[in-house]
Write a structure and sequence with these properties.
With about 500 residues, the protein is mainly alpha-helical. Helix content is about 65%, strand content about 5%. The chain contains 22 helices and five strands. The chain has a five-stranded mixed beta sheet with strand order 2-1-3-5-4, with helices on both faces. Strand 4 and strand 5 form a beta hairpin. Helix 4 packs parallel to helix 7 and helix 8 packs across helix 9.
Length: about 500
């Protein structure tokens, strides 16, 4: 009963979020990233390449691929097949993968321990998590990467737990390899958490079962061999994909600033960040611990209970390390982006599910079977309150056209479809290009001086297409006299003979 309640409430909330957000643009949270994904889907659906997909946001030749576009391709196929709006198609694909995650969590727990109540509690805790619910239906690649990461762990767990014939063993091994490659290609920072979980789990088993003995190695060689092969396959395909993606990015001056090597420090953060107590208190505890249940303090209490409960202590400790390991490695990403916890939230919710199950076992032993229902009721209320008071509020605000949406509407109505937007003061966000359905050169404050000089002298960044609009919002590009002069030259170049319009704090020049 407790696990079923969590699952049913989670399913109802997911459906409500999908329906409520169906007609709104993907700017309810982290609009920078959601619209970047939606923009790629939009241009794929128009017939542009898949593997060398374009994200026309920082100039010609428009291709700045990051992740392998499996999710984008599926969403674009749905758009082409149904005529569905890009944002809706992307949300639906994301939600379907999220549902798949819930199912794989349930099956995975049954493989590790064939206890249906335990599997329902852990799957239900994931299903009702407010954080998992919100990001599981967003226009993001997160649920896709998590799904394949879970399939990878499930396949390896089957290889360990059940005697296999040769054909079944090979089939499960290949499933593990393919799932690992797809999870890493879709989002390597997400796959890292599942790889760490597997490594920790194998190390724990080896210590508990004296894994250095030949008999143990002989019994577990399929899991170990296919796990090692998965790791090698991931490294091979990642190197190929990153080489391909970086070569495409390097074709434009601004694109060279977002290659994998250029973003290395941004991705991993600094040693000072990793060792700073403020990172773990201010970011991890205060901002991220609430994701699992909607309250950081309630999750902390459940975590302490789990670490003190002898039957589940080791599992809780392993899940906690897997939950925090990606933060320790990709520290800056987890500080800067609230959606990065989607990669690890399943480990936190599994701790919650374990505590619910342990409470259920104690209640059944004592005959006080109503106690787990009180805990489940608290979890459901916390999730409802967090979704209603936090995420639903963001979704309501996203329905009201803001400054960027107003500018996009002007551009869409007053410029030709082939026109390119040049914009200052909005970083390299994809919100304006996506909402206006135009290619763009979004000039961030960090743009190299050489790129500004090129734009001031030539139209190379437009890729042979006409200028459609110039947008100038408050910015810090002109940090010195040279950069300020180059910016003014670019503005003069693309505003000549056109009257400016004011939208909020921005000036807009339209080229009809």
């Amino acid at each position: 009963m407790p696990g079923r309640i969590l699952l049913y409430v989670g399913m109802a909330m997911l459906l409500a979020l999908l329906v409520y957000g169906w007609s709104m643009p993907p700017v309810d949270a982290s609009g920078f990233r959601q619209t970047q994904t939606a923009l790629s889907i939009d241009w794929m659906a128009r017939g542009f390449p898949v593997l060398s997909y374009i994200t026309p946001v920082i100039g010609a030749p428009w291709a700045i691929p990051f992740e392998f576009p499996l999710y984008q391709w599926l969403a674009a196929m749905l758009v082409s097949a149904t005529g569905m709006e890009v944002g809706n198609s992307a949300r639906l694909v994301s939600a379907l993968f999220h549902l798949g995650c819930i199912g794989v969590v349930y099956r995975l727990v049954l493989v590790i321990r064939p206890d249906r109540a335990l599997a329902l509690c852990i799957a239900g805790a994931f299903a009702v998590s407010p954080y998992a619910l919100f990001w599981g239906r967003s226009v993001m690649i997160e649920s896709t990467a998590v799904f394949f990461g879970l399939v990878f762990v499930w396949a390896l767990a089957l290889l360990r737990e059940r005697p296999q014939g040769a054909a079944r063993m090979i089939g499960l091994g290949l499933l593990a390899v393919v799932a690992a490659m797809l999870s890493a290609l879709v989002k390597v920072t997400t796959f890292f958490g599942f790889a760490a979980f597997v490594a920790l789990g194998v190390a724990w088993l080896a210590l508990r079962e004296q894994g250095w003995r030949p008999q143990w190695l002989a019994r577990h060689w399929p899991m170990l061999a296919w796990g090692a092969l998965s790791a090698l396959a991931v490294l091979a395909v990642l190197m190929q994909w990153l080489s391909h993606a970086d070569a495409l990015k390097a074709q434009s001056p601004l694109g060279r600033e977002v290659t994998s090597s250029a973003l290395s420090t941004w991705n991993y953060g600094t040693l000072q960040q990793k060792l700073d107590p403020a990172t773990w208190w201010g970011t991890v505890f205060k901002k991220r611990f609430s994701g699992a249940v909607g309250s950081n303090w309630v999750f902390l209490i459940l975590l302490v209970v789990g670490l003190c409960a002898r039957p589940i202590r080791a599992a809780v400790a392993l899940l906690l390390v897997a939950y925090l390991a990606p933060v320790a490695v990709f520290t800056n990403l987890h500080i800067a982006h609230p959606y990065y916890q989607a990669a690890t939230i399943v480990f936190a919710t599994s701790i919650v599910g374990l505590v619910v199950w342990w409470t259920l076992q104690r209640a059944q032993a004592s005959g006080k079977t109503s106690r787990p229902l009180w805990l489940v009721g608290l979890l459901c209320l916390l999730s409802l309150a967090n979704v209603g008071g936090n995420y639903a509020k963001r979704m309501r605000e996203a329905r009201v056209p803001g400054e960027v949406a107003q500018i996009a509407a002007l551009i869409k109505a007053g410029t030709p479809a082939q026109g390119v937007v040049v914009a200052f003061g909005q970083d390299w966000s994809s919100e304006l290009p996506y909402l206006s359905s135009r290619r763009a050169v979004m000039v961030p404050d960090w743009a190299p001086t050489s790129a500004l000089a090129s734009m001031a002298a030539t139209d190379d960044a437009l890729g042979g297409l006409p200028i459609g609009a110039l947008v100038n919002c408050p910015n810090a590009i002109g940090s010195d006299a040279q950069r300020s002069a180059l910016q003014q030259q670019i503005i003069a170049r693309y505003s000549a003979g056109i009257a400016a319009r004011s939208v909020g704090q921005c000036q807009v020049w339209l080229h009809p």
